[in-house]
Amino acid sequence: MKRSIWKNPMFLSGFLYLFLLILASFLYTILWDDEVRRLYFISENGFPVESAPISPKWNYPFGTDPLGLDMLGKILIGAKYTLILSFIIAFLRVVISLPIALVLGTYLQRFKKSINGTIDSFHYIPLSIIAYFLLHPVLWEPFNGFPTTMTERFIIEILILTVLIVPILSSLLGNEVSMVYKEEFILSAKVLGASKFRIIFKHILPSLKDKLVVLFGQQIMQTLVIFIHLGLLKLFVGGTDVDYSFVPDPPQSSTNEWSGLIGDSFRYLQGAPWVPLTPILFFASAMFAVALMIEGYVRATSGHSHFYKKFREKYNGEAVEKKDELKAADFKRVRSEGETFGG
């Protein structure tokens, strides 16, 4: 029995967390114009007792960075760029892959094996490395400054991170479409004279609706992971500000998006761990919120647990594989014993 997703506490809690985080980011920009509080040192009785980076305090719950800037303020500024861009990229991936998958699963079933065999090679290529080489000329600031605007860099990054996943996603969805296309209710519709176009829009798409929603959430999490990888490689969302002076400062994010906060502060993991761990914490919490939304949606629409079902399928698959291996081993043992006895 389907229930409203808005009444599911897991979906609602994940949605509210992300919504409030993005809302706080826009409100911070409107009210304080993206200016971050700064605290160079803390003094007691006129003597400095701690200097930047300052560890978490009551007024600075996530501490400050080496320049004395409030980490919470930087997180709030960058939240809208990190989260909204991941939503856009995930949405475009699903929207572009879906029509390709419908064609693969209905009109090109004869070529499915050869197409899947070609696309499967993409699974073994680290997409973060490909994205790095494609995005480096766009996001890394040259000596004379960026030749593109920040909006143009956003658009180029969105397109590249979308197109890289489309072949794999199209193949995955194409297999799902092919499976649905072989169902009995589809065969009945074909017997009654329904065209492929009608079957796609009246039968296949409604059957894929829940899977598309889950896939959208999974792509959000995958996009956030790619952001982290690129951040560690010093390629930040919106562009990497590079200092070419005689004594250069480290590369910095031009938008305070979260991957940039990781990439330009990871070297402080030993001396001031709160500096890189704060954006890592928010990355993890955002992905956990998306996972809650997926779980809540599946429970509200189907009544079962999405992640428990995946775990059970994996466990059962491993158990069956192990059972088959034991059977094969027993067969070999019996055959060898029989040969020995016969000999």
UniProtKB/TrEMBL annotation:
InterPro entries: MetI-like, MetI-like_sf
Pfam families linked to this entry: BPD_transp_1 (PF00528)
GO CC term, one of those recorded: plasma membrane
Keyword Transferase: no
Residue spans crossing the bilayer: 12-31, 81-109, 121-139, 154-173, 212-237, 274-294
Predominant location category: membrane
UniProt keyword Transmembrane, yes or no: yes
Subcellular location: Cell membrane; Membrane
Domain of life from the UniProt record: Bacteria
Homology family: Belongs to the binding-protein-dependent transport system permease family.
Protein name per the record: Peptide/nickel transport system permease protein
The species this protein was found in: [Bacillus] enclensis
